[in-house]
Design a protein that fits this description.
Elements (H helix, E strand, L loop, with lengths): L1 H7 L10 E3 L8 H17 L4 E3 L16 H7 L1 H12 L6 E7 L11 H15 L8 E8 L4 H16 L4 E4 L5 E3 L17 E4 L2 E4 L1 H11 L4 E2 L11 E7 L6 E7 L5 E3 L12 E8 L18 E6 L7 E3 L3 E7 L1
Parallel strand pairs: 1-2, 3-4, 4-5, 6-7
Antiparallel strand pairs: 7-8, 9-10, 10-11, 11-16, 12-15, 13-14, 13-16
Helix pairs in contact: 2-4, 6-7
Length: 329
Amino acid sequence: PAGDRRAADGHPEPFGLRHYQIGNESGVTAKYAAAFKAVAEAVWKVDPDLILIPPGSTYSLDVFKPDADPEAVRKRLAVHLDLTRFVKERGREILWDVHVFNKQDNPAESYNGHLPGGIEFSRWLTRLEPSFGPLPLLIGEFNAGRYNYGRGLGHAVELAQAHRAGDLVWGTAIPNVSQPSGVFQSDWKAVLWTQGNFDYTPGRVWYQASYHVQKMVADAWAPDVHKELSTAPRGTIDVFAARTEDGRKLVVRAVNLTKVPREIALSVEGFAPTRPVARRVTLAHDDLLDSNTAETPELIAPVTGEWKHDGLSAPLRLPPQSFTVVELE
């Protein structure tokens, strides 16, 4: 019946989806594992190449830190290890879903929260069972309790962390992309979260800071991550660098989390820019609690300009509380 309905809606061919998630935030328990295995066997009879995704979960860095007690971690991950082994023994892939929740006003919380914990969770599975090899992650929900500028600046840090772990992170997503303006969650049982990328009323749509961050990254997409060494204390300046697929550009993304302007010097090995001027896009605002409204839809918006670096001899100036993307060619 579903196929007939799809064809009637104008899609006679299957959509070709390659991933299927079984449950969401329902917990990875022994009971869940039994259900997962039953569903997996049924699904693989129809499509043996479908990659299955267990329910999204949060993983604390306090628990999954690199120097944690291996036996304690093995006990905590017993069901996760069992599910992964079940999938691997059948020659198939599993994609673990990590959910991130940054609800504070301080964007630097991203360094200590669920995202680094989730990355270490994946690495622990491989440490405990090396035969698994690297286990990919989906950051299925970049959650937040706000949609203000602080949320956007924190999201820039989150994306840098996720992309640095590109050997593990296969994809990222923000839930509740749209937000009806003026409607707020009143309790934990409500289905609405104030974390959208854009707001809307019946007559218009406008964008929030996290949308602008996403678009700035997408417009200068660079997947070939460079190893970085920074002398900036954690929680002050975050610098990420990667090459484009064709190798022609080096994209540098810099977040200034402090309340004062900063200048940083860049030294790059293995890439020499030939153009003395780089395209620069900057998102900056002085109040982390501000957001765009129907009356002021462009209060927080990126500005495009140039950085005259003269072969990286000039410093890159970062406004207070800002996210900057430059493209070196």
